[in-house]
Structure formats: C-alpha cells, structure tokens
Design a protein that fits this description.
2 domains; Rossmann fold; glycerate kinase activity; transferase; about 400 residues; Glycerate_kinase_sf; alpha/beta; Glyc_kinase_flavodox-like_fold; kinase; single chain
Length: about 400
C-alpha cells in the first residue's frame, strides 16, 4: 500500500516533521512493507522556516531581535537560492509568536512586531532579493506598527511631535506618518506573505474581536484594540491609498498582514497556495492509496484553509481516502467530513493536563497511528476475503 503522510505541526509540542515521523513509526509497527512517504507541511506558523529551508537546501541565519514583549530573544530566518535569486524565509512565530509571550504577560495591547521588521532588515543585509513571510501562531495584534518602526517608518502625534509607537495600545496616538525613510532596499524586492485568507483587520469579524480574547484581551480591551486598528487602516489609506481594512488576509498575525501591505506593498496569498509553490504534494497524493494528515486541533475552523482540509481537497480531486489525527477534537468538527476528510480521531487516550499532552504527544501519536492501521488492515483483509469469495462464486457459475 502506498501511503503519503502530509501533516501540520502540533503547536508548542511537535513540528510537522516530528508528527509525520511519529505516524510513520506507528504504521511500521503494523506493517513494515508499506510504501510510506512523509511530506511535512507548514501553514506559515511554527516550523515554517525550518521546513522550507530544509526542502530548498538552504541555510539558517541565527539572529538576536526584539521579541513580542520588548525583550531581546534568540531567533532565526532562512536563506536559499532559487534560479539565481537569494530568497529569505521569515517566520512570524519564531520572532513574535505566542510561545514567546509568558502567560502572565499575554495581552495583545502591549505586544509588538518590532522584531519582524528587524528580521526583514537583516534579510536585506544578507542580500535577499525576495522575501517569503509566514504569518501564523502570533502573540501580537499591533497591525504591524512595530514592524513599520523597525524598517524606518516615523509616527507623529497631533502636535506633529515624533512618537514611539510599537504596540496596539498606542496606535490611537498616531496622527501623521512618514514613510519616506523606509529602507530603500525594500523597493527592489518582492515580499510575499502566507496568510489565513479569511482573516480581516476590521469589522465585526476583525482580528481584534476574533483573536483578541485568545491572546488575553478583556472585552473592553478588545474594543479598544478594534478601534485602534480601524484608526490605523484609515491612516494607511490616507497616506498611501492602500485599502487594508477589509482585504483578505489583512488580519493575519494580529494585523501584520495589513501592515505589510500598507507599509511595504507586500502581496498576501492564501497560505496553502503560496506554500504549494515551494512544497509539492499533488503528485504524491495522486499516486497514493491512502492520504494521512494531522493537526493540533480539528474543529469548525479547520475547513478555513488549514492544512488537513487543504490536503483533503487535493486528495478528493484524485478520489483518494483521507484520515486525520488530531491532538484534540473541537467544536463542530464533523463539518470536516464535508471538506473531504473521511475519518478523524484524537490521539489523547485519557483525560490529562496540557503539560502531559505536550510531553507525551509523540508516543500517543505513534500509538494512535498503530491502532488506526490495525483497523485499516482488518478492513483490507476482509475486502480481500470478500473479493476471493466472489471470484469463487463466479467460477462456479
């Protein structure tokens, strides 16, 4: 049997590659002769840089940049050469991801994307002519103002005094912007951004209202942040003519998507579409007998461009069956049957703590894959027996 495993990572637990290898080990416990291919998939969040850079045989550049709480952190980005073009791969999660925000400091009003801007400048220092940015797993909601300051944007208050604005809580202080001092080198490069295409910056489904509570904001703080992001969208339009309030993907990573468009004229792409230009999976799916995918949580949001649903969409175009493993099964998960996932299951065997789930995830995933493939083997054997019996009956006739 040809099996292709195309998993996402499990946030703060396993990389996509580790997830794939755990599933492969579980399959091998049942049958070692299966033809198994593992293709780690990323959605712009954790693991984005390492996966793309490894596949492109590039190199990792270590950095020391401003983290989401304003403290310096160790981070990195990737570089590879493709068709003679030096390309940088930047992962928002590695710079200003939620994992870099201590639980007692999780409030999107006061976190910053400044380090993302610093990393863009560092990529330019390494002669990048193209930049690919993955937006996902963020711990910020500053609309990209922190990033903007780091690349040279100047902000002024209503008295035309220069002000320091690096987080969402301070956006309402901005009355004027000066984009003339942005690093000149960004004008000569293409910046492509992998985003969740359904996320928008402003409105009833704006990023502050949808994701603010998950990042630690109170209802009152959510509304303040929402108002500030609308103010930022108005400022960007008045200074650049770029409409970012409701563009698809503008709300990605707490509005960083909108900031990258507004300040750098970057191009946003549905994350799976742009990533597919770097990671090819269609051919592997086409020639597989079974497709396996995985995600930290499968729920009603999974069909909105997340890896399991996108893998299933391609698989169904080739009429291939799809099973999915998840850390948890969330609200209205059954909707995923409509997106092409034929079966899904949680890897967690019993009630447990988050800490233990993270620690034991590799073992649980391996065991879950083994159990699933024992069931598949039973079904396969029954099918073979029924086929043999039908052939016998046909011969007797």
């Amino acid at each position: 049997m040809k099996i292709v495993i195309i998993p996402s990572g499990f946030k703060e637990s396993l990389s996509a590659e580790e997830v794939g290898l755990s599933i492969e080990r579980g399959i091998e416990k049942v049958e070692s002769n299966h033809d198994v291919t593992v293709i780690p998939m990323v959605d712009g969040g954790e693991g984005f840089v390492n996966t793309i850079t490894k596949l492109k045989e590039g190199r990792i550049i270590n950095t020391h940049v401003t983290g989401p709480t304003g403290q310096k952190i160790d981070s990195y980005f990737g570089m590879f050469n493709e068709n003679g073009v030096e390309t940088a791969v930047i992962e928002m999660a590695a710079i200003a991801g939620l994992r870099h925000v201590p639980i007692n400091q999780r409030n999107p009003l006061f976190t910053t994307t400044y380090g993302v801007g610093e990393t863009i400048i560092e990529a330019l220092n390494h002669n990048a002519k193209r930049i690919l940015i993955g937006c996902g797993d963020s711990g910020t909601s500053d609309g990209g103002v922190g990033m903007a300051q780091a690349i040279g944007v100047k902000f002024y208050d209503d008295a035309h005094l220069l002000i320091d604005v690096t987080c969402g809580a301070e956006i309402n202080q901005i009355h004027h912007m000066d984009l003339s001092q942005i690093d000149e080198r960004v004008k000569d490069i293409d910046i492509n951004v992998a985003v969740n295409w359904t996320n928008v910056l402003c409105g009833p489904q704006g990023v502050a209202r949808v994701f603010g509570p998950q990042k630690g904001a109170s209802p009152m703080e959510v509304e303040l942040l929402s108002d500030n992001l609308e103010h930022l969208a108005d400022l960007i339009f008045s200074h650049t003519g770029r409409e970012v309030a409701t563009i698809n993907g503008g709300g990605a990573s707490g509005g960083l998507g909108a900031g990258l468009v507004g300040f750098l004229d970057a191009k946003l792409h549905p994350r799976f579409d742009i990533i597919m230009e770097y990671i090819q999976v269609s051919e592997a799916i086409q020639h597989a007998d079974l497709v396996v995918t995985a995600e930290g949580c499968i729920d009603y949001q999974t069909p909105n461009g997340k890896i399991p649903s996108e893998v299933a969409r391609i698989a169904k175009s080739f009429e291939k069956p799809v099973i999915a493993f998840a850390g948890t099964i969330g609200k209205n998960a059954k909707i995923n049957y409509q997106s092409g996932i034929d079966a899904f299951t949680s890897i967690i065997p019993k009630p447990t703590s988050l800490e233990k789930s993270i620690l034991d995830a590799p073992k649980w995933l391996e065991n879950c894959a083994e159990n699933a493939f024992r069931h598949i083997t039973i079904g396969f054997d029954l099918a073979q027996q029924l086929k043999a019996e039908q052939e016998k009956r046909s011969l007797k006739k």
